[in-house]
Amino acid sequence: MEVLTAFSLAGTVLEFSRFGLSLLRDSRELYKSSHGALSGNEQLELATADLRALLAKLKGREGSGIKMEEEKVPTSFQHILCGADAAAEELLRLLEDLKNSGVKSDKWEIVRKAIQTLRKKSDIEALTKKLEKFKDAVQPHILFSILENLDRDSLRTSSRFDHLDEKTQLIISSLLGNATNAKETAAVVQEMQDQMATLIQLVCRIDTINTNEHHRTRTKIINEQIKRRVAEGNVPEHPGTLKKITARFEMLDVSDAEEIKLRRNVQDDILKILMYPAMTERYEDIDEAFPQTFEWAFEDSTTEQARWDNLSEWLMTGSGVYWISGKAGSGKSTLMKHIFEDFRTRKYLEQWAQGEADGNLGQYRVPFCLATFFFWNSGTPMQKSQHGLLRALLYQVLSSWPELIPVVFPDLWARRYSDSIQGQSILRSNFDKGALIRGRLTSVFRKLTQQTLVPLKLCFLVDGLDEFDGDHEELASLFKLATNSPTVKICCSSRPWVIFEEIYGSGPSMRMQYLTRRDIQYYIYSKFIHNPEFRRLQRRNLEAAANLRKEIINKAEGVFLWVELVVRSLLLGIRNQDDIEILRQRLVSMPQKLEDLYLHLLSLIEPVYWVWASKAFQIVRAARELCTDKSTDPIKRDAGSTPLNISTFFFAMNENVHFSIELNRTGLVEKVSSRSANTITQESLPARCDAVKKHLTARCAGLLEVPRFERDGPKAVIRFHHRTARDFLYDSGRWSQISGYTNGMAFEPHKALLMASVSDLVIMTADRSVRKLIIYNIAINAMLYAYYINTHQIYNEKETPVLDILDRVMTDWTPDGDVGRSTEGVHWTYQMIGDCVNLRANMRFWKLATLYGLENYVNEKLGQLDRTCAAQISSQLLYLLLPSEAWPGRVRAPFERPEMVSTLLYHGADPNLRHRRGPYQTSPWSNMFWYMRASKSPASATSDRLRPSFIQIMQLLVAAGADLNPMSNNNELYNSERMVSFYIAKHFPDESRELLNEMVRQKRLREADESELEENSPPRRRQFLVHGSEIVV
Question: How far apart are CA 561 and CA 1032, in angstroms?
Answer without folding.
Answer: 69
